[in-house]
Design goal:
Chitobiase, domain 2, alpha/beta, 22 helices, single chain, disordered N terminus, 4 domains, seven-stranded mixed sheet
Amino acid sequence: MKLCRSHLTLLLATVVLLCGGRARSASAGNELTITTNGTTDYVIVKPDAPTPVDEYAVRILADGLKKTTGVDFPVRDAAGAPAQRRIYVGTSAASLKDMGVDPRPALRNQQWVARSVGRNIFLYGNGVHGNLYAVVDFLDASLGRKWFADYYGEKPAFTRVDALALKPFERNRAPSFAYRMLGFPNEFNYQYGYNICLPEQVCKGFGLPAGTVPAFENPVWVHTSFLYIPPDPGRGFEWLKDTGYFGTHPEFYSQNQNGQRVPEQLCYGNPGLRAQLTTNILTHIAMVRKAKTDDRPLMIALDQEDNSTGKFCYCDACAALEARYGCAAGAFYDYVIELCTALKAGQPDVMLKIIAYRKSQTQRPPSMPKGVAFPGNVVVVFCGVEDVINKTWKDPENRDTYKDLQGWTRLTPHVWVWNYYLYSAGLLMPFSNIERTALEMKLAKRAGAEASLFELYPEGGFTDLLQYLYLKLAQDVDADVKALVKTFCENLYGPAATLAEQYVWQVEAASHTGRKDMEIIHALVDFDGPFSYLTDANIHRWQNLFDEMQRKAGDEERLLRNVNRLRRSLDFATLAKWLALAKFRPDYFTDYTVVRTRLGMVGLVRAGWVEDWVLKIRAGDVHKPLPPALAGVPKEDVCEFVPLNKAGKDRVKSVLDPDAAFGYATTISDPDVPFNLGFHQNDTRKAGAALRLEQKDIVPGVWRLYTLGRIQLTPNSMIWFSSRSWMTNLELGGVFRPDADNLFDAYISLKFAGAAYGGEGENQVLCDRIILVKVRR
């Protein structure tokens, strides 16, 4: 049998396209001479009808070629390109003619191809971003671009050459996860795969260039139910801002265990709520369609508010639907089926996004009644928000979460996993979580997840490395993690790379030795619990390691900047433990201001922590004895705390006070008159002991101990201050023990100032100590 040249080309193309993500060498051929003597015979050719993403891909390709060769490459439309050597971006009638075959039917979802055929180069792919990813591959693999992060001037690096010649090549890949997202968007993330949740206002807000377009048109993202059914005027979408449904239709909202309607979640068992919600969602879709300028699919989000951990509703209608679907969110899923049936009939290109979030709400998948199928036009974003974040899905603590994920992937192929690998105080402290990141992404892929999304914010420390690892693993979940870490360190830290690797893996090993499990949210950094691995000895050893890294980085500004960014979380820990460290090694920890200066500018949220640590350092190592009324209590029965002021509007969160128990005190946010404080079980929604202090109970200007009373701790409980705020509080979940009765007597030390409390000047309430005494029976 004879094969003509066109048949042979078709066969070769088919073999290449079916080979998956591996790069392959092309058949032998002469080198492609791209530039010589400062000139080029090549022209960049746009696809037919280029999209904004295509235009962006063409721009970065031309820019990369110019930076590599110094040559301006002409850019032409396909129809008007001269008959010369071509670099095709995307497909066009001209590129298909030059290839001799149409490769598009063989492409898998989001697969991209970078290849040469003869003297021409073809960069194309599937989906909204396929052509862009082929261009990015060409920039990195063919031109040798180096880029590993995007912050503080860390931009793509090209090596300038006098002449550019390339060997024939063929590379292609379909990413492990079709959809990818992490933390805040930037151009680095976008080029390397961030492809959802990029609405126009977000892109502009972060300064992303034109052509930064998400795979879906998704006008809203998460915790959206009150956008459609706002309980109060002023909330919700702009076109619903004058509507307050709770005042007119309280039955639209949750019924609590006491039979009261409360605006915490929606009551999906109520037919009237369903009808109004569907009307509002369809109105929103029509408004979005009117503003749309392309044919990308539309994704509408409907999910619960993030303001409670209990069930949506306790009414009889919701209870009946819970029984029907075998889970706490049965009424919600029943409505989702109803809504998606209507969407499929009239809006077949619309996907509905919901979240599987909290075990008592939607994390558990439903058991579908006989004859009822889960809708195919639903995206389920699976959020293991209650996991222990320093344990994996293979550990007993989180194993049920993975079972829930597997249950969802059996119901629908559209499951997106939202990951909380580094969050809350984990962003501040040295905490890498690399092994869990890699393992759980692999397990999510094995379970059948369509997308992996990563909750990560650019704080320095390990966040830059984790961002890079996530993007690489999202493309190839089986990539060698140790090799990726090595490559990242070599490129960002130069001569200090080996020491940086040592630090990374030492912290990774140490972080598994904390005395307590690490939860998603940390109200305080507990160096006796989850962060107990940050011992004085470890911090001293790692600071010495960074001193050596700085010496190896020499005078190169970029390397020093990168080393200090990696050091950032260690510096946070050093400030937080300064008094203990200064006792441990007074010869090394001599001046905390050196560490504070090295941290430089700190984000608004982190600034509150830093201010608190600095104030404690200034207060000194003060710990006054218990008040006389508690002097005889055994030491092992006493826990002492200082609450936190978490209100963003309060400029002064803590103040120095030589008479305070620890030399400083926390200000109470928005104090009321009379002054109120109390205990609350957030998970059971039950109020506990409370105090109401009238003028007769207050002596202004002096510290006084008040008895709050007996409290029963639960995993999510707190002591709060001021009925107008609650923003100053002490979260007590870290004190709760599942094997104990968790009964304590609570005492609060307060000082009042100002005319409202019988004193003079500005009103202020301070708390310097909360004392819990274990009740022994």
